[in-house]
Amino acid sequence: MPVSGFPELLPAQRAVELIVLDRLRRVFELHGFASLETPAAESLDQLLRKGEIDKEVYVLRRLHADDVDSDSGLGLHYDLTVPFARFVLEHAGHLEFPFRRYQIQKVWRGERPQEGRYREFTQADIDVVARDDLPFHHDVEIAQVMAEALGALDFLPPLRLQVNNRRLIEGFYRGVGAPDPGAVMRVIDKLDKVPAEAVAVQLVDDAALDERQAGLCLQLAEITSDDSSFVARVRELGVEHELLDRGLDELAAVLDGCSAIDRSRVAVSADLRIARGLDYYTGTVFETRMTGFESLGSICSGGRYDSLASDGRTTYPGVGISLGVTRLLMPLFQRGALTATRPVPSAVLVALPDEDSRPRSNTIAQALRARNIAAEVAVSAQKYGKQIRYAQRRGIPYVWFPGVADGDGDNVRDIRSGEQAEADVASWTPPHGDLTPQVITKEDNAQNS
Amino acid sequence: MPVSGFPELLPAQRAVELIVLDRLRRVFELHGFASLETPAAESLDQLLRKGEIDKEVYVLRRLHADDVDSDSGLGLHYDLTVPFARFVLEHAGHLEFPFRRYQIQKVWRGERPQEGRYREFTQADIDVVARDDLPFHHDVEIAQVMAEALGALDFLPPLRLQVNNRRLIEGFYRGVGAPDPGAVMRVIDKLDKVPAEAVAVQLVDDAALDERQAGLCLQLAEITSDDSSFVARVRELGVEHELLDRGLDELAAVLDGCSAIDRSRVAVSADLRIARGLDYYTGTVFETRMTGFESLGSICSGGRYDSLASDGRTTYPGVGISLGVTRLLMPLFQRGALTATRPVPSAVLVALPDEDSRPRSNTIAQALRARNIAAEVAVSAQKYGKQIRYAQRRGIPYVWFPGVADGDGDNVRDIRSGEQAEADVASWTPPHGDLTPQVITKEDNAQNS
To answer: Which of A236, A363, B43, B369 gives A30 a disulfide partner, CB atoms 3.0 to 4.6 angstroms apart?
Structure first.
């Protein structure tokens, strides 16, 4: 039995996941982000520094450890930020700053499984970290790179990358006269789940605002725009604070920096209700929602830390964003919305005229592979009809028939159309889309059937 | 602190590992092997079925589980064969047989760390599994594919893939008249560590052979050859058994099938002392040794199982081989024998004439990326000498200087040679070897310095 909360993909689904990971990696690397992996296990001291989610940590114990007290003091990482911060402190002397890294790994949380929540899931994180100072333009860079990476997943439902800025909202709350801006933030953060009227009441009761102040904070939270026009709308509310000014400038710079992104795939918007209340962000914050899957919440979140890591002497500010790959893909798999054109890499099945011809069929397959065409040889010299059905069951699009009589050329058949033609192993090339498995969506499927 | 036994790679080392994994994957996929991953955790029932290594299993426990008895019943997988066997049984209805898969994942063992032994390490496995019957030619295929994959790692010290056949040795021992062929196998397996004279004594004492029988078994174990000439040498020993005949035929077929492999990189040999005593192989067995690193033992092992998995009604025979990626690479990293040309993907640093030019430098970088050239933009508009040193510290080979005055063209400098030339972002292309990080060996390093 598969273990509850530990998703397991069938080969065609895994083919989709590989395409997703390859495209993410490609965009990250083109932007100069270096790959990094950290061990699955960290010391519990490291893992529990943050505190809020300690109960979700899986602790490791050797099966035949002498007694309970001999636990290893190790736990599985539950995100990639805590291990990265530890990595930066530990290897600072071997790194050049600012340091760009991407990290695509599984993480584990001992949560109760439910849709969109898994005990094992893959995250794809990008971060830029510096020593002492990290220029603001890296916030823009992180938004651009992740928007471009998400845009490369052109088979997903439309996505919306929502950006806000903690300085902006904190400055606004201070300008309004809120005695505890953090309390306002935590209440506003509930707007996704709680009606605005109830939030207004809580702002008065829990954040000590008067009704006018609460009204202004709610008006701020309602502002969204796809460009920097949000600035004028905030100004219209008549609130003044220097932190607000800086936050508005920063958020406008992120929006301007993303103006070249293809908005039909990934809409980038300023969304002034986004706060990421429980995380320690200090400036830019990101969330991402997938159209039609809003109940999943944010599938890609992050922001700016003024102190991603610190050893007491040196502080390492950082900005990053983390994509929940499993969280994104599993609901699509479960709805049958995504699959691959085939579950095997093979583009060609080389047929076997008879068992003695195996070396020759192997030679043909090897010649195709040398030209980057994945190929396998038939398992046995059954009738050709059976060999073709073998290819069909695997979704292999082409069957190669070696010439049998002296002087006969080889033939290749597209088993989808039935078209067959003479072919030379040194030059025949399938259309690019047939070379490797491709992602198909439910709509593609519907059109083809 | 990094946790003992959990290796952590710096960016340049990780770049080497990625190149290794990419090349392995490429060969596996060209041969039609589909990617698969299984969860890190399996039920303890599954993990403990084999028995011998149960004490190495890491058990998972939620940190705030109510008491010790509420352990999850889950442990981390310690190899990729046990999870694959479980996967095959569980998903048999969704798979087409014979089923070829590759699986590249980390595995965990709670062993005492020592050189060549890690608590977390990456394995790369290929297996072919069938329902009821798996034709022998798949044994040849597995040897060919892994030899080709190892050969693609052309920066490694020379490797030797050693092949034997359990039927051959069991048939020989039976033909000699051994009362317990398994006992002979277990004693012969010690030849790597124990002198031949001592093994001869043990064959008499522990395997109940007489001296003539023991001598014949030792003579068999000494036979090696790079082609099928071993058959004649076995025949000269005058032992007859039908199982021996079948084993000789099979082993000769594997050697013949590997005759096209480039022997300068991966020598394939019949080696009649290889037994893999503790594993449940039934025919072909594989081990692999790396020249100069013999003390590591076998870095790539496997063989044929007549029953990889069984649900009582259906039996799934399989043949596979498992490469210890971490075990292979870590000793080379520790000796400084392998590194990458640079720790970052960027081939180009786009310089910044002044801070106002950032959008223009971003546009240049984006145009390079669109042509598959990884690029990053300078962090700040320092003097060009400082920007060049920034690139040098990262090993980025090219710095791109945007033209400043109207009508000025852009320039690109190879900062290794100092050569600089006008360049057009729409057509300039670096040499292929500069496009992505490459592996360099200690010898390359010595030649260049």
So the answer is: B369
